[in-house]
Amino acid sequence: MRKTMEVMVAIDDSDESFMALKWALDNLYSIGGVVAEWNQEGGMLMMVHVQEPFHQYFLPAGPGPAMESVRKAQEESTAAILARALQMCEDKMVKAETLIVEGDPKDKICELAEQMHIDLLVVGSRGLGKIKRAFLGSVSDYCAHHVVCPIVIVKPPKEHRK
């Protein structure tokens, strides 16, 4: 019996994460436009979205309507991101699940990949230069050094790099 491949794609609101999803769908889940055999036999694509923790201390008014409004906006944004990602999967006839977790994206992605026994992690790269990457940090760079499974980092085309 053939083992199915467990693939995880990290999704956020960036174009680069959707480029990574498109790459996975085009290169791992279809061959010449035909759904890959291993996908038909139960291979599932897991899309994970990591929300930054909600910090109450950013709002001087404390708990109340303002905080609830921010929380609701975050939920709506997450729902829109995942709906777009799920539609891309549906268009390619790929079975997919979504998972929303809260925390530091680079840590959570690596933790989930290990806990879920992921065979391949696919992430996008913003194409930051060395200086910006040093100051801003890079989720893809961190994952490349810490994740327990193979990783594919999908870089944006040269004209889109920052």
TrEMBL record:
It comes from the Eukaryota. InterPro entries: Rossmann-like_a/b/a_fold (IPR014729), Universal_stress_UspA (IPR006015), UspA (IPR006016). CDD domains: USP_At3g01520-like (cd23659). Residues 6-155 form the UspA domain. This is UspA domain-containing protein. It comes from Xanthoceras sorbifolium. The lineage of its organism: Eukaryota, Viridiplantae, Streptophyta, Embryophyta, Tracheophyta.
